[in-house]
Amino acid sequence: MRFTSLVIELIRARPRLIVWIAVLLQALMWLFVALAFYRSPPGSLATLLAFGREYQVGTDLGPPLPIWLADIAYRAAGGHVFGVYVLAQLCEIATFIALYHLSRAVVGSQQAVLAVLLTMTVLAFSSPGLDFGPLVLARPLWALLLLHSWQVIGQRRGNAWFAWSIEAGLLLLTTPAAIFLLLLIVVFAISTAGGRRTLRSLDPLFALIVVAVLALPYAVWLMRAETFTMPALPQVTELNARAIHAAWLLGGLVLGAAAIPALTFLNTGLFVAKGEEAPIIFRPPVEPLGRNFVYFFALAPAFGAVLISGLLGLDSVVGGAGVVLVMSGLAVVVAAGDLIAMRRARMLRTVWAAAVAAPAAGVVLAVLFLPWTGTNEIATSMPARAISDFFDESFARRTNHRLRAVAGETQLASLITLHSGRPHLFIDAQPGRTPWMNQAKFSETGGVVVWRASDTAGTPPPDILARFPGIVPEVPRAFEWLVNGRQGLLRVGWAIVRPKGS
Prior knowledge:
Elements: H1 6-13, H2 15-37, H3 45-52, H4 65-76, H5 82-107, H6 109-126, H7 134-153, H8 161-172, H9 178-191, H10 193-199, H11 203-224, H12 239-256, H13 259-266, E1 280-282, H14 288-312, H15 321-324, H16 328-336, E2 339-341, H17 345-369, H18 384-399, E3 405-408, H19 410-416, E4 424-425, H20 439-445, E5 447-452, H21 462-467, E6 477-479, E7 490-497
Parallel strand pairs: 3-4, 3-5
Antiparallel strand pairs: 1-2, 5-7, 6-7
Helix pairs in contact: 1-2, 2-5, 2-6, 2-17, 3-4, 3-19, 4-5, 5-6, 5-7, 6-12, 6-16, 6-17, 7-8, 8-11, 9-10, 9-14, 12-14, 14-16
């Protein structure tokens, strides 16, 4: 009797179960990493939460939806950042489940599993796992938008227009790249016979009205915002440098998807003994419109985003690599043919698991061992709770008032705003970024000014001293990292601005 691995049989018999198991295990892996090795939020998440506390329609961080959702998740978790980590993983799960349903509609349920598993390796390397923000929230919205776009164009399901309009409006409230992504859908619809037939009905008009209503408040804020400016186009002399920059961005996308060609190469007949019969994953024939849909949305967002980012000189790809590469796994499966032989299944499983777990393992190794190699700081090793508790209690003891605002170095100040009292963040170096607080209001309510101490006296940096000329620095407070290693303690200089009338 020929032996077939249990995983292959489950892919054939219970494809949806395999997808849920893989997606949930990845989410649990990242949540364990956050609980065990994160003492402060990654990236700019603390600043995002500080902005979310204010519930502004628009800020310089972009559209408001991810900022609001982060604050809601933070409050729902009882003032713990773990709630935001769970929200990030829920977005990850929603992305893969939407992709599975889209893939199932194009290539059938069995090969849809392969599309999801391949895409998991891409997103593991190319997009953040726990740093919730526009790049994370845009992924499930874009995947759902593609699913309902296919239902509208390829399957002619008119009832999908309402969901499509809601997702398009929410995407506009999530990322500035939404306009570019929606234009790609319009281009595909106009360039195909099925899409043009769909656009002749009244449903697109009603969908456009829903999208306009959802995006109207943020659009009004953009028109009124004094800080909003269109990016400048490069000069002719800069085009060569911008082209090289675009090539580097494209190389980064290719590197992020490197696990797919590696798995494809390992699945070739080069590693199979003669006469060995590999199990087959079957699919019904893919219709031409479905093939064109998959190839277009696998290639056009990536190349378009690279072109725009290179032309404007942006540091990262417009929309994020996790968005523009979300169809890459399905495109490879479509190109592989109706019959996909799973050769050396055990080796493929091992390589796939290593690719998915490698970023999380890299985070753990960096936290545990990087401090012993030098003085490089790990931002997630900063003791956020101890920092916020100390300055909140110190201000209350000195002034008999609750801490209402924090200024100084943005990273440290953002960590203090995570305290249960949720003081306001004041970016004194760029006060326009925090319109809910200004210098006069900060002086009236009082607050704490913090900075990295460079000496034992806690002398403020010249720029902070110029903006707060009357402050008297306190003795710097030292905090331990999660792993101190060979780096020194985190020394925070601080000063209290007493409330007026106290």
